Amino acid sequence: MKNDTTDQLPKTQRALVAGGVGKLILRNDAPLPSLQPDQVLVKVQAVAINPSDHKFLDLSTVEGAVSGADFAGTVVAIGSDCLKPLAIGTRVCSCVFGSNPLRSDNGAFAEYVAIRSELCILVPPRLSLEVAASMPVALITAAYVLRSLRLPSLVPLDGKQPPKISSARPRWVLVNGGATATGTILIQVLKNVGYQPIATCSPKNAALVLKSGAQKVFDYKSSTCANEIKAYTKDSLSYVLDCIGSPSTMAMCYQTMGSAGGRYTALEPYSERIKSTRSDIMADWILAWTVYGEPVALDGIYKREPILEDFMMCSSWISMIEPYLANAKIKPHPVDINRKGGLNAIPDGLDLMRKGKISGKKLVFAI
Ligand SMILES: NC(=O)c1ccc[n+]([C@@H]2O[C@H](COP(=O)([O-])OP(=O)(O)OC[C@H]3O[C@@H](n4cnc5c(N)ncnc54)[C@H](OP(=O)(O)O)[C@@H]3O)[C@@H](O)[C@H]2O)c1
Fold this sequence. Notes:
The protein is built from ten helices and 16 strands. By secondary structure, the protein is of the alpha/beta class. The longest helix is centred in the C-terminal third of the chain and has 19 residues, at 308-326. The mean pLDDT is 95.
């Protein structure tokens, strides 16, 4: 270790681990995650919950594995080969692959996490650690979405010259599920890179989604939603991000696409049956768990070999977007912070999410 406070670190920690299908139990004697030379150890001060937390727990339970992805905290130990210049005490946020069958000691619902230094997002002074914990999964997902939709940045996020694209070309991107935690971040990212996002949401979340930067919102529960979008975009929509990714949302998204076709990207595996209805639409779905450049040992279509390119893409994406967080060009999804319950309160939060009761906000827990 290059730099550490190892002497002051406890030998064990409190952590929420899978105790069976759909069940989390609090362990008081869980081991601290082992630290690789390219990783830092972070003392977790806040975590947020994601749908993947309960999906892993319910559908691919790894008994004894620490759960949780999104976290924020301070660096307490630094491996000997870390490339990002972080110091002890630096405030960072990121996400880990909790419930990972290959790394059962490392999940966010714990007092300590280990994470590659390049995947740490610096938390600017204007953001509290609680608020910062709500953002990493969505921020990292954004890099995959831009790549999948083949949306070149029209503004120089990284200081490089952007590609020249005719100003006459429509730049609509539909974000279906604009009020999701991923949706409000993606809308802001799309706007920052030069596109005109439009979105679907419930009427009660219209103000939130418009404030995030959507040019127009549509009620996805309306039977005329797809037609309204098609009319608004004058049959020219060619990019759709589906943050819900169910067969019914995919069918609706396909109806919105202009007659010249385009690209559809979902955050869940798409329906082959609906894909086959239009050969002019390139369908794709993303899986951000490849961000670590390590194997994803999930079943079936979720299984992945290590993809180093994804780690490289996200490392440079994080460096590009850090200034956008610092100057509030990318703002957090609304947060509901539980400051009293700590790790004990997380299972109830996950249950609300499981039942579809979270709308337009991210549940955050101070640890
Ligand atoms: N593949 C990946 O790498 C990846 C990465 C990130 C997320 N995801 C997945 O993406 C999905 C969204 O995650 P999240 O955390 O962003 O969600 P979230 O914040 O928990 O989503 C809640 C929102 O979903 C909206 N919603 C529900 N049904 C809808 C529908 N039919 N049409 C439009 N909006 C609908 C609701 O909007 P209203 O309240 O306005 O009704 C609600 O506010 C999850 O399935 C998650 O697992 C996957």
